[in-house]
Design brief:
The protein has 676 residues and is α+β, with helices and mostly antiparallel strands. 58% of the residues lie in helices and 7% in strands. The mean pLDDT is 95.
Length: 676
């Protein structure tokens, strides 16, 4: 048996070759499936193993291209990517509706040999049969054709949605015309604005809507008209009210996407699209999800209301003689935080230069999971920002590779994410392939004056995405469709990522991550105590904001059948009446840039963040009691959760680790809503 660790040759990817390579792969896959359907005595080895190899080879071909489209986007690459994506959709429809292949896999499932298979292999077959039904294998010819047409149109519409958000975000700039507008802004942001102006050959500093620029303006700009201008531009992105409405209005796309999703659910005999979405999740019913969200809303809304009243009173004391507006929230929240806890988040940021944080994070993971990270100096890459690490066990065996791309660029999608580059799997010849993954963020770029400095929220984001990467990297499952994050219920996939965030509140951990960018001094204990004392600051407001997103997402997918675009806004308004404590202007078009649910796979699943947070908060209690660097417990978490991927049901794995089912109380405590 040979163990291989091939890495993508990014420099060799040529736009003109992408579509031909995808077509060649799909043609070969069609031939493979045709041969499989001629097998008279089907088994795991002569059917499922070869399908798993196809699954892995598809990822190896496509993931690097998908990654480039996310981090080095150009109009030319996007066009080729979208053309290839249509081919992939057709191919997946072909597989999912292949009646003969479905019957062969059913035959394997019903054979005596099935009981001799491993848990992972049984799960592969279970998922295959489930997914055949969800792909319309039971439909008649006309309905199958309609299913295929809907799938292809949804792929195109969702891709266009994300592209519109990216283009609308990148296109907007706000020139700084007076020193008054710079008041309160941190120096790194001013430097970034000057660099943006230089990039565009302009003399006036330019602010953009990219993170972390926008959030820093809203938090620190003393000039209220500037905050309002930036806010209006941000919340009307990709809408009919935005500055580029004629080019990138996502409103009509939302209408089409929801109608097609409702039709898809109807074709498959689900009552609504939310039910269809839950077919692959932990939650058992739409009622269970709504009950969960409404319970959190009942717990969090009174606290959020109290926090909002306090903030309004504080703003008035600070001289704001008009009602608090949305563009004032972050600004006065930061001022109130400084007054209550006696620290400035910018001062805190100075202690967390990105290289130091990354070193501390890797050191923590090495101790916790008994692994080693080794940085590679020379490797084939897509950009000079990228880093590459190998992950080894204590014996020096390579377990995985991990790419990092952490700085903001105009060619990048917004936000932060982890993604697969290559899965772990053992092929039909017995060769083992190690997993490879990406972690991508949009942190502030280093300047001539300062390194990239992270806020505490940035640190939590980095830990979160590393949780996903660990789930992918530390898997010990050889069947690629259930290794790593593959095959994991969508509302459990955030469990390891939410779990890792808990370490960001430890003094020992934060001290190890810190080193003032000038003095190199670690985070002072007094400043840590101030940060810790603010842990539950505005936790109610934060909670109801997430619940607004989750309830809106779930309700529009629960009720979108035969509805028009007005229904989307009216649903959002109703949800805000239930949970929001901030008055939102009528022009706000949050939904038009909600890429998570219209281009990110979280459709009728945004609740997953809070659902998985129940699992993570509960599981973390064991570490809080045993010690955050407890290697024995870390290895237990690795062996019972991270290594198992989607080879077993998420609830079964949780119960194996905790000895019981999860309790919501731990989440309420972690949010500061309930006393320990």
């Amino acid at each position: 048996m040979k163990k291989t660790a091939e890495l993508p040759a990014f420099s060799q990817i040529r736009l003109e070759n992408i579509v031909p390579q995808v077509k060649a792969f799909i043609d070969a896959a069609h031939e493979t499936v045709a041969r499989l359907c001629q097998v008279t005595e089907p088994s795991w080895q002569n059917i499922l193993q070869l399908l798993e190899d196809l699954f892995a080879q598809e990822s190896i071909l496509w993931s690097p291209i998908r990654h480039l489209n996310n981090v080095m986007s150009t109009p030319e690459l996007r066009k080729v990517h979208d053309e290839a994506l249509t081919l992939w959709t057709e191919y997946h429809n072909f597989l999912g509706q292949h009646t003969a292949l479905y019957q062969i896999i059913r035959k394997i499932k019903n054979s005596p040999a099935f009981e001799t298979l491993s848990k992972a292999q049984k799960m592969v077959i279970s998922h295959q049969l489930r997914d055949f039904h969800l792909s319309g294998v039971d439909l008649d010819a006309d309905k199958k054709a309609r299913y295929q047409a809907i799938s292809e149109e949804l792929t195109a519409l969702c891709t266009q949605f994300g592209a519109n958000v990216l283009d609308a975000t990148q296109a907007y700039t706000h020139p700084i015309h007076s020193p008054e507008e710079l008041s309160g802004l941190p120096q790194w942001l001013i430097e970034a604005a000057k660099e943006k102006a230089a990039e565009k050959n302009q003399s006036t500093p330019l602010l953009t809507l990219a993170q972390p620029i926008y959030s820093a303006v809203m938090q620190f700009a003393d000039h209220r008209p500037l905050r309002e201008d930036m806010y209006v531009a941000y919340v009307t992105r990709a809408s009919e009210l935005g500055p580029f409405a004629k080019q990138w209005d996502n409103g009509p796309l939302i209408d089409k996407i929801l109608k097609l999703r409702a039709e898809l659910a109807d074709l498959l005999s689900f009552n609504n699209y939310a039910e269809l979405s839950l077919a692959t999740k932990m939650a058992s019913s739409t009622e269970e999800v709504l009950s969960f969200l409404n319970e959190l809303a009942a717990q969090g809304t009174p606290l959020a209301t109290q926090e909002m009243m306090e903030l309004q009173l504080f703003a008035k004391e600070q001289g704001l003689n008009s009602p608090l507006q949305p563009w004032d929230i972050a600004y006065y929240s930061e001022k109130l935080r400084q007054e209550k806890y006696d620290y400035n988040s910018e001062t805190l940021r100075h202690y967390f230069p990105l290289p130091k944080v990354l070193d501390g994070l890797l050191s923590l993971l090495e101790k916790l999971f008994s692994i080693q990270f080794t940085q590679h100096e020379k490797f084939d890459t897509w950009h000079s920002d990228a880093l590459l690490y190998s992950i080894k066990n204590k014996k020096g065996d390579i377990l995985a590779y991990l790419y990092l791309d952490l700085y903001a660029r105009s060619t990048k999608q917004q936000g932060a994410w982890a993604d697969e580059c290559r899965p772990r799997y053992k092929d039909a010849a017995g060769n083992s392939h190690v997993p490879v993954s990406f972690v991508v963020c949009n942190f502030s770029r280093p300047s001539s004056e300062t390194p990239s400095l992270l806020t505490h929220e940035d640190i939590m984001t980095l830990f979160h995405e590393f949780g996903h990467a660990l789930h992918h990297s530390l898997t010990e499952i050889d069947e690629p469709s259930v290794s790593g994050t593959h095959g994991v219920a969508w509302d459990a996939v955030e469990f390891p990522s939410q779990f890792m965030e808990n370490w960001c509140w430890s003094q020992e951990v934060l001290t190890a991550l810190s080193g003032h960018y000038q003095s190199k001094e670690p985070l002072p204990y007094t400043l840590y105590q101030k940060l810790l004392s603010s842990k539950y600051y505005h936790c109610g407001l934060d909670l109801v904001r997430q619940l607004e997103f989750a309830l809106f997402d779930f309700r529009i997918h629960l009720n979108c059948k035969d509805k028009n675009l007005k229904f989307v806004q009216s649903t959002l308004n109703e949800v805000r009446k239930q949970v929001a404590v901030i008055s939102i202007p009528d022009y706000h078009r949050f939904q038009n840039s909600f890429t998570h649910i219209f281009d990110g796979g979280y459709d009728a699943g945004y609740y997953s963040y809070k659902w998985a947070e129940v699992l993570s908060a509960d599981a973390f209690q064991r570490f809080a009691a045993a010690g955050l660097y407890d290697t024995a417990l870390g290895l237990e978490f690795k062996n019972k959760i991270l290594s198992r991927g989607g080879s077993e049901e998420a609830m079964d794995l949780f119960v194996e680790f905790m000895g019981r089912k999860p309790k919501i109380d731990a989440l309420l405590v972690s949010l500061g809503i309930k006393a320990p």
